[in-house]
């Protein structure tokens, strides 16, 4: 029997499809087109080929932004996963005031990156922040002036990001830990297996899908990193914490270089597709094999 498709469903979904086609795909195509022009303050139809891309990848600031994105992305995602897992394991031991601790650890994730940046800008201030407080207690050799160092500033951004994002991983991992069969814990206690070994060898492998989902959410945030950097360092000192999103926004609104900004945005989009596409393809193949359709 031939399946009928209700016309009303298509009518109901038509606004969504129009929004996707016009707003998302349309603006994407328009941006790619502008990247091949000499557009400055206003769009131009004067095509210059790959001149904007040549200028982009000869810019030391853009190359530094890409390098910073890799450093921040790897350390941020790994740091959030490790710290979130450790916090979840600590709360999983049925500690007192678990609800209070869970709220405290998750609270930073409820704040925007702008607020996080301002908080850590104050904490990392060598005159008024954490360094000054510790020095006042007598430990005068303590230094936490990373924001004023070109070599350490990007790591200060990582610390602020991990402080905010670890709570999300903690909540997801804790939910997964509470789903572990209690018989496994009883068997481990009978065999005399240390608690840390149970978490590493038994619990952690079962949290694979949960941690993968958390890692995906965190990675999506890395690509869009802008407000945290602007609030915390504004890309400085110099260009030590410059990231691609800030490079694009600066060229778009401050330097009025629409062609270079769209070239940077297109390049970033292509990089994301190149990285994500193989993983998505592997997941599709794996799902088809499990379903027996391949």
Can you describe this structure?
The chain is an all-alpha fold. The protein has one domain: MetI-like fold (Orthogonal Bundle), CATH 1.10.3720.10. Helices cover 72% and strands 0% of the residues. It contains 13 helices and no strands. It has helices spanning 7-34, 51-57, 60-91, 98-110, 113-123, 130-136, 153-177, 182-190, 195-206, 208-223, 227-232, 244-254, 258-291. The protein starts with 6 loop residues before the first helix and ends with a helix. The model has no long low-confidence stretch (mean pLDDT 88). This is Lactose transport system permease protein LacF. It is found in: Cell membrane. It is a multi-pass membrane protein. Belongs to the binding-protein-dependent transport system permease family. InterPro entries: ABC_transporter_permease, MetI-like, MetI-like_sf.
């Amino acid at each position: 029997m031939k399946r009928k498709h209700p016309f009303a469903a298509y009518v109901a979904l038509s606004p969504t499809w129009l929004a996707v086609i016009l707003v998302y795909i349309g603006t994407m195509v328009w941006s790619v087109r502008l990247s091949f022009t000499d557009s400055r303050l206003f769009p131009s139809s004067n095509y210059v080929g790959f001149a904007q891309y040549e200028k982009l990848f000869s810019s030391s600031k853009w190359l530094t932004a890409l390098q910073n994105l890799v450093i921040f992305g790897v350390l941020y995602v790994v740091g959030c996963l490790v710290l979130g897992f450790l916090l979840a394991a600590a709360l999983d031991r049925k500690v007192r005031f678990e609800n209070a601790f869970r709220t405290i650890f998750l609270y930073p994730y409820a704040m925007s990156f702008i607020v996080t940046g301002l908080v850590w800008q104050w904490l990392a201030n060598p005159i008024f922040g954490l360094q000054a407080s510790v020095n006042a207690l007598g430990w005068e050799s303590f230094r936490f002036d990373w924001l004023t160092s070109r070599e350490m500033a990007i790591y200060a951004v990582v610390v602020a990001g991990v402080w905010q994002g670890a709570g999300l991983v903690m909540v997801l991992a804790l939910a997964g830990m509470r789903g572990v069969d209690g018989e496994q814990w009883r068997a481990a206690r009978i065999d005399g297996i240390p608690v840390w070994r149970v978490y590493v060898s038994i619990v952690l492998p079962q949290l694979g899908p949960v941690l993968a989902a958390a890692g995906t959410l965190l990675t999506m945030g890395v690509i869009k990193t802008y407000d945290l950097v602007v609030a915390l360092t504004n890309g400085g000192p110099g260009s030590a914490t410059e990231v691609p999103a800030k490079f694009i926004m600066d060229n778009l609104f401050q330097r009025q270089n629409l062609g270079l900004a769209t070239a940077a945005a297109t390049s970033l989009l292509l990089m994301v597709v190149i990285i994500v596409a193989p993983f998505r393809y592997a997941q599709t193949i794996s799902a088809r094999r499990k379903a027996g359709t391949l």
